[in-house]
């Protein structure tokens, strides 16, 4: 099935749980490791302070290019340090109150923005609200929303899932998790929390989706798995690791 790929034994490490494109970050599962600054780059030459993980940014630029977004869609907020997230949370509590803040602003170390894998986008129509930018379900914004999954992005917080995510609908907030996970989530109408529960079913037998094989491995001490150089490994930030392999 895997052609002439060279496989090697890899011993899972506890820290593998807390790293990778698929990590779940929320109030229950907080960030354990800060992203290395060298893994970040500017999203836009006109907004050099807005950063994103290099891989996520490469796919974001491809998506924006496909719909010829040009200057119609602007990056509003990307990577945030712990200190920046703390300031945003504290200031919002003072200016907007507890109800608004808990609905739209994540607790420090519970924000996807600290991973470098999340981007807030806004429709360029003059002044843009930093906390709640406009990204409507029509026009160029909807064009982006409709193709985002092809480039590994999901619309992370939707109204119908707020009881699960504990975050109100954020039509502007997109999270990079990588393909084909993004397409599986979209087709099944999952949020990321639900996807991680779903993928745990594929521990003994992998999920086959198109030309990909996806398997969940609960972390156990001294467990070894076989990996090729092209396999993608990501923790879930909970209790295990997901391996994504392209079938040759």
General description of the model:
With 248 residues, the chain is α+β, with helices and mostly antiparallel strands. The protein has seven helices and twelve strands. Strands 4-5-7-6 form a four-stranded antiparallel β-sheet. Strands 8-9-12-11 form a four-stranded antiparallel β-sheet, with no helix packed on it. Strand 11 (232-235) and strand 12 form a beta hairpin. Helix 2 (82-96) runs antiparallel to helix 3 (98-104). The chain is globular. The mean pLDDT is 94.
In short:
The chain has 248 residues and is an alpha+beta fold. Helices cover 26% and strands 26% of the residues. It has helices at residues 54-66, 82-96, 98-104, 139-147, 162-165, 181-188, 192-199; strands at 8-11, 40-44, 47-53, 73-77, 118-123, 153-157, 170-176, 207-209, 212-218, 224-227, 232-235, 240-246.
Protein topology:
Elements: E1 8-11, E2 40-44, E3 47-53, H1 54-66, E4 73-77, H2 82-96, H3 98-104, E5 118-123, H4 139-147, E6 153-157, H5 162-165, E7 170-176, H6 181-188, H7 192-199, E8 207-209, E9 212-218, E10 224-227, E11 232-235, E12 240-246
Antiparallel strand pairs: 1-10, 2-3, 4-5, 5-7, 6-7, 8-9, 9-12, 11-12
Helix pairs in contact: 2-3
For this entry, give a set of tags:
26% strand; 248 residues; globular; four-stranded antiparallel beta sheet; 26% helix; 7 helices; alpha+beta
Tell me the series of helices and strands, N- to C-terminal: EEEHEHHEHEHEHHEEEEE
Arithmetic mean of pLDDT: 94
Q: What radius of gyration results from the CA coordinates? A: 18 Å
Oligomer: single chain
Taking strands numbered 1, 2, ... along the chain, how are they ordered across the largest sheet? 4-5-7-6
Distance between the termini: 6 Å
Can you give the helix content as a percent range?
Answer: 25-40%
Strand content: 25-35%
Overall, the morphology is: globular
Unreliable residue runs? none
């Amino acid at each position: 099935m895997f052609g002439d790929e060279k496989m090697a034994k890899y011993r899972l490490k506890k820290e593998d749980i807390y790293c990778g494109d698929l990590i779940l970050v929320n109030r229950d599962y907080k960030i354990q490791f800060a992203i290395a600054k060298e893994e970040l780059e500017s999203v836009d030459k006109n907004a050099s302070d807005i950063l994103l993980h290099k891989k996520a940014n490469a796919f974001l630029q491809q998506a924006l290019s496909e719909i010829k977004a040009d200057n119609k869609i602007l990056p509003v907020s990307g990577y945030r340090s712990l200190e920046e997230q703390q300031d945003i949370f504290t200031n919002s509590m003072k200016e907007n109150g507890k109800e608004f803040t808990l609905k739209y602003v994540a607790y420090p170390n519970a924000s996807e923005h600290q991973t470098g894998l999340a981007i807030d986008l806004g429709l360029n129509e003059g002044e843009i609200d930093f906390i709640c930018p406009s990204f409507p379900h029509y026009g160029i914004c909807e064009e982006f929303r409709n193709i985002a999954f092809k480039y590994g992005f999901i619309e992370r917080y939707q109204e119908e899932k707020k009881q699960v995510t504990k975050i109100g609908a954020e039509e502007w907030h997109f999270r990079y998790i990588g393909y084909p996970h993004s397409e599986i989530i979209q087709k099944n109408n999952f949020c990321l929390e639900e996807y991680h529960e779903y993928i745990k079913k594929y521990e003994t037998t992998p999920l086959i989706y198109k030309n990909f094989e996806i398997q969940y491995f609960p972390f156990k001490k001294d467990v070894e798995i076989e990996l090729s150089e092209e396999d993608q490994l990501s923790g879930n930030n909970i209790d295990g690791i997901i391996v994504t392999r392209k079938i040759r």
